[in-house]
């Protein structure tokens, strides 16, 4: 299981990596533009510094033609590092670029995936991660769970070195659904992640445990006994 952050906000990233078991981070042009930074590469490098080398960094291209995507991939690799994943939408031009990048040794994350066939084509072309858009599928009346399940079983049967990263989440149940559907990773906005533990029942349980404890030990904690 892998948990990635879907943000480019430096403060949120710092907070989240100190709390959650984060194994990587994804961006897209909308996420980047929210930060309103003209120095794009400086921002990405700052993100890499916080993540360290042990976490994966997935940076999305903006060009839509194969040649443009390849140029951006070269630039991202030059400015960031060789480990970065080039996040590329699975259009016809994108698929062509994914095949070329994979052959040239780039790490590729295929994205904007709404259908099983998009995922299968990207996996065959050499993508290492497939970003499937759960909530956006639901908005289109697509059976998102079915797409996750069929893609996951096709990858498992193929033996390809490729993981599904569930993306586009609006609530925590969507996140747990895709793990149940066979996704190995999810990318989640930090503010959504925080709602997972914002459950008053947790605090109530802890308060009640401590009330019982205090009857015998007063306000002393275990380390003070
Ligand atoms: C991540 O890879 C996707 O770009 C992102 O999760 C899309 O999320 P959205 O549908 O909330 O924009």
Beta strands, count:
8
Overall mean pLDDT: 98
How many helical elements? 11
Question: Strands of the largest sheet, in order across it?
Answer: 1-2-3-4-5-6-7-8
Helix-strand makeup class: alpha/beta
The main β sheet shows up as: 8 strands, parallel, barrel
**Low-pLDDT ranges:** none
Radius of gyration: 20 Å
Global geometry? globular
End-to-end separation: 38 Å
Helix content: 40-55%
Along the chain, the helix and strand elements come as EHEHHEHEHEHEHHEHEHH
Quaternary structure of the protein: single chain
Instruction: Name the bound molecules.
Output: erythose-4-phosphate
Strand content: 15-25%
Question: What's the SSE blueprint?
Answer:
Layout: E1 2-6, H1 10-19, E2 22-26, H2 29-34, H3 40-51, E3 56-60, H4 66-79, E4 85-89, H5 92-103, E5 107-113, H6 116-125, E6 129-133, H7 134-139, H8 144-158, E7 163-167, H9 172-180, E8 185-188, H10 190-195, H11 200-217
Parallel strand pairs: 1-2, 1-8, 2-3, 3-4, 4-5, 5-6, 6-7, 7-8
The protein binds erythose-4-phosphate.
């Amino acid at each position: 299981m892998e948990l990635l952050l879907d943000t480019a906000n430096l403060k949120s990233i710092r907070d989240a990596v100190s709390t959650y078991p984060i194994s990587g981070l994804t961006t897209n042009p909308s996420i980047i533009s929210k930060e309103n930074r003209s120095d794009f590469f400086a921002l990405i490098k700052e993100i890499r510094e916080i993540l360290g080398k042990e976490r994966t960094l997935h940076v999305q291209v903006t060009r839509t033609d194969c040649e443009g995507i390849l140029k951006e991939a070269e630039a991202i690799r030059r400015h960031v590092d060789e480990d970065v994943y080039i996040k590329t939408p699975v259009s016809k031009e994108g698929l062509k670029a994914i095949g070329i990048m994979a052959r040239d040794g780039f790490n590729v994350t295929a994205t904007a995936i709404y259908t099983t066939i998009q995922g299968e084509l990207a996996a065959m072309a050499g993508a290492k991660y497939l970003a499937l858009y759960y909530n956006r599928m639901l908005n289109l009346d697509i059976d998102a769970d079915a797409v996750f399940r069929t893609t996951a079983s096709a990858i498992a049967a193929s033996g390809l070195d490729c993981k599904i990263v569930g993306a586009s989440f609006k609530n925590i149940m969507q996140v747990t659904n895709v793990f149940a559907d066979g996704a190995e990773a999810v990318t989640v906005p930090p503010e959504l992640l925080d709602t997972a533990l914002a459950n008053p029942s947790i605090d109530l349980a802890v308060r009640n445990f401590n009330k019982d404890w205090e009857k015998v030990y007063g306000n002393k904690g275990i380390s003070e006994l």
